[in-house]
Amino acid sequence: MVIKISCKQLIIAFGLLTASIAAKAQMSGTYSVPGSFPSISAAVNALNSQGINGPVTINVNAGHTETATGTIILNTSGTATNTITIQKSGIGANPVITAMPNGIQLTTSTAGVDGIFALNGADYITIDGINLAENSANTTPTTCMEYGYGLFKASPTDGCQYNTIKNSTITLNRNNNNIAGNVMFAGCAGILIINSQISTANTPVIVTSPSGSNSYNKIYANIIQNVNAGIYAIGYGNAPIPFTNADLGNDFGGSSAATGNQILNFGGATAATQPANGIQIGAQYNFNIAYNTINNNTGAGINHANVLRGIYVNNSGASASGTISNNIITLKNASSTSTMEIIRTSAITGGTINILNNTLINCTHSSTGIFYGIWNDGTEANVNIKNNIFTNVVSSVAANTNYLISNTGLVTNALSIDNNSLSFNFTAPTSTATLYWINAGTANLYYGSYSGNTINNYASNNTGTHYMFLINPAYYANATEKINNNALVGGYKRTGTAGTTYGIYHYPGGSSATDSISGNILDGYKSINSTGSFYGVYDFGFSTAPYANKFIVNNYHNDILNIAGKFNIFSNGNFVDIVNIYEDNINSNTILKILQNGRVGIGMTPSTNLLEVNGDASKTAAGDWLANSDARLKKDIKQMDSKAVLDKMLALKGITYYWNDTVTGSKRPTQLQYGFTAQNIQEVFPILVEEDNLGYLQTAYGTYDAMYVESMRALQQQIDAQQAIIEAQEREIDALKQNALKVAELENKMNAMLLLLNNKQELTVKQ
Question: What integer pLDDT is reported at residue 767 of this predicted model?
Answer without folding.
Answer: 61
